[in-house]
Prior knowledge:
Elements: H1 3-6, H2 9-28, E1 45-54, E2 57-63, E3 69-70, H3 71-82, E4 99-106, E5 110-111, H4 117-123, E6 130-135, E7 138-142, H5 153-163, E8 176-180, E9 182-187
Antiparallel strand pairs: 1-2, 1-3, 1-4, 4-9, 5-8, 6-7, 6-8
Helix pairs in contact: 2-3
InterPro entries: AMMECR1, AMMECR1_dom_sf, AMMECR1_domain, AMMECR1_N, AmmeMemoSam_A
Protein name: AMMECR1 domain-containing protein
Domain AMMECR1: 10-195
Amino acid sequence: MTVTATLSPTQGLFLARLAADAVHAQLTGVRLTARIPSGSPLHDDGASFVTLERAGALRGCVGSLEPVQALHRDVVRNAMRAMHDPRLPPVTAADWPDLDVKVSVLDRPERVAADGREELLATLRPGVDGLILVADGRRATFLPSVWAKLPEPEQFLAALLRKGGWPAGEWPAGLSALRYGSTEYHDYGPRPVIG
């Protein structure tokens, strides 16, 4: 059974609030305190992504593809790392009032049996599949939520190939693909001004 299958909506909302609290703690220098009940699936190893957006603009998105630590710890770590996503300027106190926080809890990735571009495109499930591409010592992924911006499988795959540094219209030698599902939980702004 996957971690996502064992989480209740309340536990998912707790994770989104925990991620927001981790960002707030980093911005204010206040210590993060959270009590996770014993026996909770939040103690189970899990993989997550934390996405930070301000007024619909991406401010950071960082995560883990494999479960290597307790889910609640993974979420806190990824929230703090998302604040310093190397692709974007760091999140600041000015972002906080309008910051939306999303936590995606990932199912374990499964290899896709596809020997080429057309086979992979035929197996993709828009809106459902997260996708990981691996080749040449590089790896790139899109969460299932990216389908909202790239709804056509061809678009989705081409953009992910570009993200990984491969030509968008080619199938790199030795490329392997993995798919995963995820469940999203949100903690939306507005929030009180810091300061």
